[in-house]
Write a structure and sequence with these properties.
Length: 249
């Protein structure tokens, strides 16, 4: 297990789902954890500090990150997890829906990355940042153009940030979950047969749990010679191929 004894950590979107699992895993590894979320953070989840913060609001992000740093006196790791989903075919999608998803998933991740990077650079202690993207960022999922594009952009943001921040001893990576038992995945229950079909195409079988992704996030935070990488924590669902001849053998 990654040892984060007394490390100061920040998690966005830590009130539920994957984010809540990350908070608990970080706390178990010894970190002091602050959560930024627009929703209330349930008690007992491992966070020692919780701030209401809309990550699309530049001033709110800068203020919240500064408050976390003032409370902890340092910032060692950050997990940029907050995100939203959505469905809609390109020809039918309203611009407002495109902007809603991009505002949180891309703009919000950028604002948080910039804020924590500035703090880490100024402190001169290095650090480790993991953003949560998605396997949808490198798959062509119909009716998810805005979500997929936002997550692909986050993966590239991570790669560029890794090059820029490496000289300061700051590592920047991403974890790309696949089908995970979260409220976003639960919304697909209205799609007949979808969940069973996905489970059947996952190499390890079934649907992932938030803890499975959280374990990957915490492990990646501790890999000292890894930066600019995207780790798929998806049970192998992204390995499925529509032209696999093995399905006919």
């Amino acid at each position: 297990m990654t040892d984060l004894s007394d490390a100061a950590a920040l998690v966005t979107g830590g009130a539920g789902g994957i984010g809540a699992a990350v908070v608990q895993s970080l706390a178990t590894a010894g970190a002091r954890v602050a959560v930024l979320d627009v929703r209330p953070v349930p008690p007992g989840g491992g966070a020692v500090m919780a701030l209401e913060c809309d990550i699309t609001d530049e001033a709110a992000v800068e203020s919240a990150v500064a408050e976390v740093y003032d409370r902890f006196g340092r910032l060692d790791v950050a997990v940029l997890n907050a995100g939203v989903g959505g469905f809609g075919h390109i020809v039918d999608m309203e611009l407002s829906e495109w902007d809603r998803v991009m505002a949180v998933n891309l703009r919000g991740t950028f604002l948080c990355l910039r804020a924590v990077a500035r703090v880490m650079v100024t402190a001169g202690r290095g650090g480790s940042v993991v953003a949560v993207t998605s396997v949808s960022g490198f798959l062509a999922d119909r009716a998810m153009a805005h979500y997929s594009a936002s997550k692909a952009a986050v993966a590239e943001l991570v790669r560029v940030a890794a090059r820029e921040l490496g000289p300061f001893g700051i590592r920047v990576n991403a974890v790309a979950p696949g089908t995970t038992d979260t409220p976003l995945f639960a919304s697909t229950a209205r799609l007949a047969g979808y969940q069973d079909r996905v489970a059947g195409r996952t190499a390890l079988g079934g649907i992932g749990a938030p803890d499975d992704v959280a374990n990957a996030v915490v492990a990646l935070l501790g890999l000292t010679w890894v930066t600019g990488q995207v780790l798929a924590a998806d049970g192998g669902v992204s390995l499925w191929s529509p032209i696999d001849p093995g399905e006919s053998l």
